[in-house]
Structure formats: structure tokens, C-alpha cells
Amino acid sequence: MKMSQAVEQSLVVLIMLAVQQDNAPVKSHILSSRLEVSESYFKKTMRKLRIAGIVTAIASKEGGFKLARPLHQITLLDVYEAIEGEDSFIHSTQLADRIFKGSDELVKSGTKEVLAIIYDAEQAFKQKLADYTIADILSHIGEESIEAIDWRE
Amino acid sequence: MKMSQAVEQSLVVLIMLAVQQDNAPVKSHILSSRLEVSESYFKKTMRKLRIAGIVTAIASKEGGFKLARPLHQITLLDVYEAIEGEDSFIHSTQLADRIFKGSDELVKSGTKEVLAIIYDAEQAFKQKLADYTIADILSHIGEESIEAIDWRE
DNA sequence: TATTCGTGTATATTAATTATCTATGGATAT
DNA sequence: ATATCCATAGATAATTAATATACACGAATA
Asked: Which terminal residue of chain B has fewer beta carbons within 10 Å of its beta carbon, N or C?
């Protein structure tokens, strides 16, 4: 069970935007070349972040992407769900239906319980992600070094 | 981020074995046909469960698979890890290295923090799975109906 | 009016999952 | 003994999702 690479890529981009002075917009080709992915692929990921209200896109000369909200209002769950969607880790019951077809109804309820437990575990995972924001990540970086960074150069 | 089908298949098989009277061994071809997968594929999954010490294989006429331990000693985490292994949801840092190469060391530590948070969330997920056993699932099934089931028929 | 994002489509590559078939060898109950 | 069934392994295939690129036209704006 692996998390999409795009989630990590997104988080790194957000860190980059977060340390950009004055939240000045940074161009696609600069960010994508830093990530070493094509601008085309990069924009597909950024689109998801934009739709989720995490970044703002500015179409203009001197345009680019910037953060849409303060750092402490962007949780890791926001980013995760923006990229991965809200699908559950498991989505089935079809299997249970196949197996217990013809046998006791009460056994079928056992698999329903399985789904409930996995859903419960999934919620625990997501709650942890919701507990942390980009600001928490940035708090591990020294103030001085942040002021010195301009990704547009 | 999706859980392997094999995890759900395994749980269903364990439920079937759990309600089998006297923990009598059930043959591969019976279980695999119930799951509607080939016996060959089914055995590959069962092998993982056997290596994890969850089921016992009996090679003999009147052989088959049975549970290796009491129901309450088989957690959902045991099953999950038997099938999915112990890989983390995210495994990288390579990306961080690529991006922050040439820029400040302190920024790199931001991505380390990201990995730590995701690992934390993953542990929360796994802890929930460890909190439940096959016995918990079975507790949702009436005693009477369990006594009536013989999967070997 | 040049620059840059927005959107959409088509396509390619890679990797993992899911799955089957076959075949040889080993354990054991009767 | 021998039939039955698991153990292991290798080759192969289908399906799906993730990852990725290229291209083209439209829209916003400094």
C-alpha cells in the first residue's frame, strides 16, 4: 500500500512556496525543473492543488503559483486528499457476496465488520495527517535560512 | 492508496476457517473456488499466511488448511503485514535530495519532517488494525449459525 | 502583445497487482 | 504402496494504476 509520488512532490512544492519571500508567485518551469518532471506533468498535479484551494495560479507575465492560504491552514490531510481523492483503502463487499452466497446471512455480516474496522483504521491515519500543517514542517527550518531563499533565481 | 485484494481474500478465508467445526482442515480447491480464483493463485496467498504463522498446511489425504492459532491471537495487522509486507506508505528522501541539492541544508530537514509525520500516521493506522482480531469479527456472528457450517461439503 | 497559466486530449512507459498454467517433489493417512 | 494434497518454483499473461510527456488552443494580464 503505497502513497502516490505526487503527494510527496506536492509537499515539497508547498515547502518551496512557503519559504518564498512575500509569497511571490513562482513559475511552473522553475518548480517542475527542480522536481525533475515535465512541466506538463507538473501542471496536472498543481491543478489538483488549485482545485483544492491550496495554491493560487496567476496567469500573467510575472505569474506563477503561490500559496492560497496561510501555512497553518494547510494540513497534510488537505494535500493528501487533494491528490489521492477520498476513496477508501478498501472498497468491495462484492467478494463477501460471492463467497457467502448460498450460505448463512450472518456470516456475511462478518465481512461487513472487516470493512468497518479497516475504515476505522483509515480514519486514524487521516486524523494524524490532519493534525499537522505546512507550518509545523517549516518550524523545523531556521528563520535565517528561510529569508535567504528565492526560488525564482 | 489501495489495500491489496489479497488482504480481503485472506480475511474472508480466515473467517471461513474460523467457523469450521473442530478447526478441521479445508482443502485448497474448495476455498479457492469459493473465492472464485484459481487454486494456483490462491496457494500463493496462503503461502504468505503460512509463513506468517497464521495458518497451518497439512499435506495429506484429508489435508488442507486450518488456523494455526486461536482466533483472538490473530490480529488484522498480522494479516495485513503477512500479505502487504512491512514497507512504509512512503519511501523516498531521494526527491528531497534532488530538489534541495545546492540549496540550504535546513530546508532539506523539512522533508525529513514530512516523512516522520507520514510514518506517525501510518503507525496510527497499524495500531488500529492491531486492536482487532478475527475473534472480534466472529463475535458479530450468531453461535447457532456457526455450528451449522461445514465448508468441506 | 508576449508571457504564462488553464484545459483537454492523446499517448507512452513503467510497475504492481492479479491471475493462470505447468511440473516436480514431498508428506501422510489409510 | 499409493492416492491425495500441499510445497515450491518458473513462465507467462491480463489488467490496472501511476507516472510521465507532448501538443494545441484559449484566457488572463502586466
From this structure: C
- What pLDDT does residue A94 have? 58
CATH number of domain containing B46 = 1.10.10.10
Quick: pLDDT tens for A47-75.
Answer: 999 999 999 999 988 889 999 999 999 99
The answer to the question of residue B106 being in a domain is: no
Cell output for A153: 533565481
Residue A112 neighbours by CB distance under 10 Å: 13
User: Nearest 10 degrees: CA dihedral of A117, A123, A129, A131?
Assistant: -120
Any atom of strand C under 7 A from CB of A82? no
To the nearest whole angstrom, how far is the Cα of A62 from the nearest Cα of chain B?
22
Q: Which domain holds residue A74?
A: 5-147
Specify the 3-state DSSP secondary structure of A56: strand
Pick from B95, B104, B121: which is nearest to A145 by CB?
A: B104
Q: What is the pTM of this model?
A: 0.90
Residue B14 lies in a domain: yes
Closest residue by Cα to residue B13 from B28, B3, B128, B63: B28
Mean pLDDT rounded to a whole number for chain B: 85
* pLDDT tens digits for range A94-132: 556 655 555 555 556 777 788 889 999 999 999 999 999
- The total number of structural domains in chain A stands at 1
Residue A46 lies in a domain: yes
Q: Cβ B95–A12 below 8 Å, yes or no?
A: yes
